[in-house]
Amino acid sequence: MTDEYDVIVLGGGPVGENVADRAVQGGLTAVIVEGELVGGECSYWACMPSKALLRSPQALRAAQHVGGAAEAVTGDLDVRAVLDRRDSFTSHWQDDGQVAWLESAGIDLVRGHGRLSGERKVAVTLPDGSVRTLTARQAVAISTGSDAAIPPIPGLHEANPWTSREATSAEEIPESLVVIGGGVVAVEMATAYAALGATVTVLARSGLLGSVEPFAADLVAEGLRGLGVDVRTGVATKSVARDADGVTVTTDGGDVRAAEILVATGRTPRSGDIGLETAGLPAGRWIRTDDTLRVPGVDWLYAVGDVNGRVLLTHQGKYQARAAGDVIVARAKGEGVDDERWGRHVATADHAAVPQVVFSEPEVAAAGVTEAAAREAGHRVRAVDVEFSSVAGASLHADGYRGRARMVVDEDRQVLLGVTFVGPDVAELIHAATIAIAGEVPLARLWHAVPSYPTMSEVWLRLLEAYGRQSA
């Protein structure tokens, strides 16, 4: 072990791991500073455990909607088995495997809390309380992620609410759960816990899934209610009180009682105690970067992943990490920087081609921008919708399949700006849309991308046909 490296990375989640890995692959030395589990939020309290909780109920519902298979399903969901499977995906909250991967990749690890202490310097408070100072010859990359935001609702903090961490790691399913919020975490955890046997109430003051197409949010609300979830939109939470039997949530529409409460109202950057002031930056805020992920005015400092506030998704953070690691190497070696639009050293997709899946009932898979966002950005667009009932593959996939697809077309350039799919198992369709958007594939060329029959991908042909009819 040494105290001097080419690159120091604060944060050992997937984003920090990728920054360090690209740096090492480029011939630099790198160290990760991590105070919790190597693997980060996604591995232990977000992406992996949440999808494990959702998958078993989803598979059961899928079987129940296919004739022949439905008749074979005679038992109920085994909740304990679902939780055990979830635990296996988190490695029972042990990071031995992740640490072994760091070692195999040639990346050093220092456990402790790291803070910037000067130019290219990081002071690490080790578990025994001592402080070790590391120096970066080239760059420091901040990849500390984000935390769940707790809104200033009277009594909420004192009620010791669940956040996404507790919801994804719980070992018992409460009899009832009230969820404050209407975003992705709120929707997915309401879906999971309703399927696992809890009576769930969702209090969404601003509605559900405000970043997706409105029709998608409406179908998700309908799906949640079909699972027995009490979805209340436009309802403001006034106060929260906990007693020995649970919590009382007072809203402007009456009180809600539940055994447990989950707050899912957004995220806040994990940047409050990492020494940003030594670089002339405000603490506790999103760290602004250019498209090479470098902090303007501080040529040795990068912010990658959630902490920069660009796109709070693990896959986008890892994409940023690949760009950041590669550009750090290029700058260290005095090589040219490919920072033009769609260059290898920039995160252009953050602005134009972000994919996301909400693992709700039904699923929402979207890439690019919504129709409203495209118009707001000044594009002349046309939105084209088709129902999945027109797609033979969807009818085969599930009896009575319901869903909808939309593509948002830039009328001037004849390329796609956004695509949204809603329906059971649409997640695996979205990468084709992401490629079409990122590649700026002309609609005339998309006609030659022939979907296999009979698959759900035939929805692409139906969208193009609908566009053609509108243009006639």
UniProtKB/TrEMBL annotation:
<dbReference type="InterPro" id="IPR023753">
    <property type="entry name" value="FAD/NAD-binding_dom"/>
</dbReference>
<protein>
    <submittedName>
        <fullName>Mercuric reductase</fullName>
        <ecNumber>1.16.1.1</ecNumber>
    </submittedName>
</protein>
<feature type="binding site">
    <location>
        <position position="51"/>
    </location>
    <ligand>
        <name>FAD</name>
    </ligand>
</feature>
<feature type="binding site">
    <location>
        <begin position="144"/>
        <end position="146"/>
    </location>
    <ligand>
        <name>FAD</name>
    </ligand>
</feature>
<feature type="binding site">
    <location>
        <begin position="181"/>
        <end position="188"/>
    </location>
    <ligand>
        <name>NAD(+)</name>
    </ligand>
</feature>
<feature type="domain" description="Pyridine nucleotide-disulphide oxidoreductase dimerisation">
    <location>
        <begin position="354"/>
        <end position="460"/>
    </location>
</feature>
<dbReference type="Pfam" id="PF07992">
    <property type="entry name" value="Pyr_redox_2"/>
</dbReference>
<keyword id="KW-0520">NAD</keyword>
<dbReference type="GO" id="GO:0016152">
    <property type="term" value="F:mercury (II) reductase (NADP+) activity"/>
</dbReference>
<feature type="binding site">
    <location>
        <position position="266"/>
    </location>
    <ligand>
        <name>NAD(+)</name>
    </ligand>
</feature>
<keyword id="KW-0547">Nucleotide-binding</keyword>
<feature type="domain" description="FAD/NAD(P)-binding">
    <location>
        <begin position="5"/>
        <end position="318"/>
    </location>
</feature>
<keyword id="KW-0285">Flavoprotein</keyword>
<keyword id="KW-0274">FAD</keyword>
<dbReference type="GO" id="GO:0006103">
    <property type="term" value="P:2-oxoglutarate metabolic process"/>
</dbReference>
<keyword id="KW-0560">Oxidoreductase</keyword>
<feature type="binding site">
    <location>
        <position position="306"/>
    </location>
    <ligand>
        <name>FAD</name>
    </ligand>
</feature>
<dbReference type="InterPro" id="IPR016156">
    <property type="entry name" value="FAD/NAD-linked_Rdtase_dimer_sf"/>
</dbReference>
<dbReference type="InterPro" id="IPR036188">
    <property type="entry name" value="FAD/NAD-bd_sf"/>
</dbReference>
<dbReference type="InterPro" id="IPR001100">
    <property type="entry name" value="Pyr_nuc-diS_OxRdtase"/>
</dbReference>
<dbReference type="GO" id="GO:0050660">
    <property type="term" value="F:flavin adenine dinucleotide binding"/>
</dbReference>
<comment type="similarity">
    <text>Belongs to the class-I pyridine nucleotide-disulfide oxidoreductase family.</text>
</comment>
<feature type="disulfide bond" description="Redox-active">
    <location>
        <begin position="42"/>
        <end position="47"/>
    </location>
</feature>
<feature type="binding site">
    <location>
        <position position="114"/>
    </location>
    <ligand>
        <name>FAD</name>
    </ligand>
</feature>
<dbReference type="InterPro" id="IPR050151">
    <property type="entry name" value="Class-I_Pyr_Nuc-Dis_Oxidored"/>
</dbReference>
<dbReference type="InterPro" id="IPR004099">
    <property type="entry name" value="Pyr_nucl-diS_OxRdtase_dimer"/>
</dbReference>
<dbReference type="GO" id="GO:0004148">
    <property type="term" value="F:dihydrolipoyl dehydrogenase (NADH) activity"/>
</dbReference>
<dbReference type="Pfam" id="PF02852">
    <property type="entry name" value="Pyr_redox_dim"/>
</dbReference>
